[in-house]
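Record 1 of the preview.
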Amino acid sequence: MEQAAPRRNVGRSQEHSLDRRQQNAQRPMEWPIWMQQMPAYTPDINPYPALGMAGIVKQNAIHCNIVSVKIAAEGRSDVFTATTALRDVIDEHNLYKRNRNARPRGWRGSVINMSYSYGDFTWHPDVVTLIESVLQDLENAGIPISFSAGNYDNDRTHVGCSYPTTVCVAACDIHYARWVSPPEPGEPREASNYGPDVNIIAPGVDIQSADFETNDRLHTESGTSMAAASVAGVMAIFVGHEKIRQNAAKVRNLLYRNALQNIPFTGFPQGTTTRLVNTGIRASYQPPLILRRPYFGAPPFRVP
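->
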């Protein structure tokens, strides 16, 4: 967990004060982002997901706290382990809401990133019921959750992504084309999932983040996992700025309202959303400028 040092507004001029407020709209916070955590590195397990996703979230919400939550053991992750971890997050979040003394310093709310797929297959109805029960409990607690759509090149988004209160994220490149991995001999093609369950699209190609082997270089990966982490970071900006602790639907509405609309994506079949993730920072500045909002839907502040 990283803890940001508190900052004071020491501006002496109107211009400096306004600039400080604009900056605070992007970094007003010290609050947790709950991340899935893979087990310790072994030759058959990629240790990048937890560290890499944390780095991507921090690129968007630079003063958030990253909290690792273990959902896998010995190279495997079952539904019970993952749902138990999510319930632990709910318990912690609810404790912080009830008890001010129990909160970490500067706590403002929670966001969950799940750059993690429940698989490209049909679940037993009892398993679906278990997962959906936890997702509804997250909604009731006020915790928004970002899910990667999956890299299976189809429209069969997993149960975590198809639930109506989650944010399902597909991946594109810098040219607004659906992410498709280069072909590898003997390997099935990987590409971003698509379809009506996808709520928003985010950059997911050649994304750089922290490397798990050294402090001296970045690691580059592609996929819907990277896209989901970016969306979690953007939602964290809204949570941190407005202290949204009990209303996950409000966070999703802010995400969709500030997204860029009707982007001419290519490679996504008809029926997939055309929203592209965006913070909305400064996009809402319109004359008159006596009152400003750092993003659409934010409470206004008065310019000195």
